[in-house]
Amino acid sequence: MPNKRSLYEQVILDHNKAPRNFGELPDADRKAEGYNALCGDQFTIFLKMDGDVIDTVQFEGSGCAISKSSASVMTTQLKGKTRSEAEALFQKFHAMITSGFDAELDEAGLGKLMVFSGVREYPVRIKCATLAWHTMLSALHDDDGTVSTE
Amino acid sequence: MTSDLKHSAGATAQLDVDAIRADFPILSLRPHGKPLVYLDNAATGQKPQQVIDATSAFYASQNSNVHRGIHHLSQLATEKYDAARESVCRFINAPDSREVIFTSGNTEALNLVAQSYGGTFLGEGDEVILSQLEHHSNIVPWQMVCERTGAKLRVIPIDDNGDIILDEFEKMLGPKTKFVSLIYVSNALGTINPVKKIIELSHAQGVPVLLDSAQAAPHMPVDVQDLDCDFLTIAPHKMCGPTGIGVLYGKTKHLEAMPPFKGGGDMIISVTFEKTTYNRLPFKFEAGTPNIAGVIGLGAAVEYLSAIGMDRVAAYEAELLEYGKKALREVEGLTFIGTAEERTATFSFTLDSAHPHDIGQILDGEGIAIRAGHHCAQPVMKHFGVPATARASMAFYNTTEEIDALVEGLRKVNEVFA
């Protein structure tokens, strides 16, 4: 079995219990809300931009350990990234959790996000892991809309 | 093992749960290397070998269409199909098997009544009363018919135990009330509604009552004559039967007055392009080739349950409820959602340490199947201010040992998320 990770890595449990960058960002210039109607998960992502670069990202809301820790870990990875870099990171993250084991993909700069590779063994939890990301992209595009993973 | 299930009539006779469990091949599975503890019975129930055999025997040696062939197989299939209707009729003590209509499921049965009865007899300003405990399948069909007819929905509120507030029902029941459609047992909480009282009060005002007994019929005797309900729906897959089949019982006077729900073959006596004459009951409401294997499987399911005795099922499950209440109370941080005095052995709860989905995930790793979510009853979740709950729902083949396994599993959840 190649590097199979358990779903609830210590890092995930830690971020679930003590989420980073948690709370409303009063001077955010973009925000979006995301829902998973099936399980009632709900998050708001706040972004403060410096031109095309993400200056600050925060979130608030509630959900399961996977959705909450994914939101938390995501916020630690986006600061200083341009819009297209953030989009590219999501594409890699999404490919990683929806594919089988792929060493090349896994080593392609996902860093800390690799703690979520256990999700690939639990397809029903992919929506949990991607809710915050979809919501962040909506905020980034300033869609001013509501994201639902259902 | 069926012969063993024919217990003597003594009221104190216990269920031979080991013998019953041996009838359910799926219960010997070991998901993730652990014995399966199946506690998701409110979602769907497991099937005994007798039902599996009846269904496969139909396809292996009886398969034919019903009510149309003169050949041997068609007659055999028709006999089996009609016998299943008689079995269901006896199971719910319907006065006449023509009042037993097969649908594609409990949801379709509810839609049938909402559209055919509601669509015909509801008008602008009329009111339909539901409760806050309803499953979405007894909300949305009525919303759809209200939109079309201009009728309005009234909702009986619930208290913090998860009981409907009867006084509020009495207040809203009035000259505008044209129909009451009520869940018999809450799928989300297990609350058993005071349906006889509701029916009595409604009938005093001349208002017909439908009981959605999807979560009642698997757990207790359901007698439509004793209840005096006007309509009753059943979800066979929750009571040992196959999926894809449902039952609607209706009093003849209502069914005769209602237009067909769907058009097609089997529901007609004669068709010309000028005029179609509809078939008699129950066929008027059964357009097209029915789910024959499903009906035959359902027949086997109700015969299986009848052999055990639904009064015994209810008595045994009441013991599981009492045991579970005590055992689960010992789990740190557990809060019951729904604490009605009258309820089935269904435990809806939250844990301080973990979200319901995470509870379900950890338990799955222990071989324990529960449900996490809003249980298609978002108004119930809203009342309790939670987005979701974990729900362990028991059947007559569950045991106190399995409740112990659940408690151990929940302790593990607490450890992981400590």
Question: Can you give a write-up of this model?
Answer:
The complex is a heterodimer of chains A (150) and B (418). Chain A is an alpha+beta fold. Chain A contains five helices and four strands; from the N terminus they run αβββααααβ. In chain A, strands 3-2-1-4 form a four-stranded mixed β-sheet, with helices on one face. In chain A, α1 (10-17) packs across α2, α2 (65-78) runs parallel beside α5 and α3 (83-98) packs antiparallel against α5. With 418 residues, chain B is α/β, with parallel strands linked by helices. Chain B has two domains: 4-45 and 310-417, Aspartate Aminotransferase, domain 1; 52-307, Type I PLP-dependent aspartate aminotransferase-like (Major domain) (Aspartate Aminotransferase, domain 2). Chain B is built from 15 helices and 15 strands. A seven-stranded mixed β-sheet of chain B has the order 2-8-7-6-5-3-4, with helices on both faces. A four-stranded antiparallel β-sheet of chain B has the order 11-12-15-14, with helices on one face. In chain B, α12 runs parallel beside α15. The chains are: A alpha+beta (150), B alpha/beta (418). The interface between A and B is medium-sized, with 19 and 16 residues.
Number of strands of chain B: 15
Number of domains of chain A: 1
CATH architecture of the largest domain in chain B: 3-Layer(aba) Sandwich
Query: Which quaternary structure do these chains form?
Result: heterodimer
Gyration radius over CA of chain A: 14 Å
Number of helices of chain B: 15
Chain pair forming the biggest interface: A-B, 19 and 16 residues
Largest sheet report of chain B: 7 strands, mixed
State the share of residues found in helices of chain B, binned by percent: 40-55%
Order of helices and strands of chain B: HHEHHEHEHEHEHEHEEHEEHHEEHEEHEH
Poorly predicted spans of chain A: none
Radius of gyration of chain B: 22 Å
Determine the CATH topology of chain A: Sufe protein. Chain: A
Strand order of the largest sheet of chain B: 2-8-7-6-5-3-4
CATH topology of the largest domain in chain B: Aspartate Aminotransferase, domain 2
Beta-strand content bin of chain B: 5-15%
Q: Provide the residue-averaged pLDDT of chain B.
A: 94
Low-pLDDT segments of chain B: 1-12
